[in-house]
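Re: that chain you flagged

S.,

Sorry for the slow reply, it's been a week of failed gels. I finally had a moment to sit down with the sequence you sent. For the record, here it is as I used it:
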Amino acid sequence: MEKQLASLIGETGYKLHAGRSRNEQIATDLRLFVRHSIDTLQNLIADWVEAILIRAEAAGSNAMPAYTHLQPAEPVLVAHWLLAYVEMFLRDAARFADCRKRANLCPLGSGAVSGATLTINRQAIAAELGFDAPTANSMDATSDRDFAIEFVDALSMLALHLSRWAEEMILFSTSAYGFVELPEAYSTGSSAMPQKKNPDLLELVRGKAARVLGCSTTLRALVKGLPLAYNKDLQETQEPLFDATDAIIGMLPLVTGFMNTVEFDDAKMNQAAQLGFMNAWAAAAYLVERGVASRLAHEAVGKAVALAVERGCDLQKLPLADLQAIHAGFDAGFHSCLGLTEVLALHDVPGGTAPRHVKRALQNVRERVKLLR
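Prediction finished late last night. Pasting the structure tokens below so you have them in one place:
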């Protein structure tokens, strides 16, 4: 740094070291790096979230199955599914913002370990470099890397969420689901099988996530046994910090491009949302609204599902007489509560998949993305 400065401004550059130590300089540089990286990431996350949001807004009234234990559970709006990921990534952005506050303190003036030997104005230096304030303790400032660990932890959480999204996209692109058509630009063919289209980007996102998680573990292991203050082991914290940052900053524009070009098979998703007795809970809720105890309603609908399976039909096709033989709570209005529109509307609570709540959620997220930018 000193040689480079001297090459730019001449012999005055050699005064860089006056009253300073490498220990405080590298601690300062790393904080500047983390701060700059967070600012870059917040814009990239905003682009990524907006790409998801645009697809959610375009999905309209289209529905799909939601799964628990990888088994079809209940239908949800496609927009509701996509907004689940938006919430994850907005929390990631909030973690970076929180991390930035703690990282944005200036170590300059800490010296090697016990403070500078010149009575410098630390507040002025901090302000000139855009820091909120100077660090409070010289030994802590030169020897801790918790700001870097916290930053890479936030990167690893973002990577984890990206990996979950990638895995679900991979699953939904398989022939077993058929909900997603992989974009050509982010896929490759098989070297042997001409019919194949492999989800290369998505698989690499999963792989990179493992790498970022490893960087987080490396940082913790490096620092866990160090006595105060500076130790040369801290030099090894830089590589995992830079590697994790590069991985995520390189990944986000690619997943954004993928989301902008991926195609959803709306017809297949809507059809799947009406299969597999995913209206069973709505059927039980119908009985509960008529005074049947929840557990008994659950049992009655379970018997109705078993009967429908035996006959190879849906709940809607069971005659009322057969339903009333199971429980007297079934009445003539029962079949009308089982359609996809009625089942979606049933979840009429904030955070639920009822269309009016999803519409409000879309508006809310749009405002939050603006604030993020």
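What I noticed first: Residues 155 and 307 are 50 Å apart (CA to CA).

Talk soon,
D.
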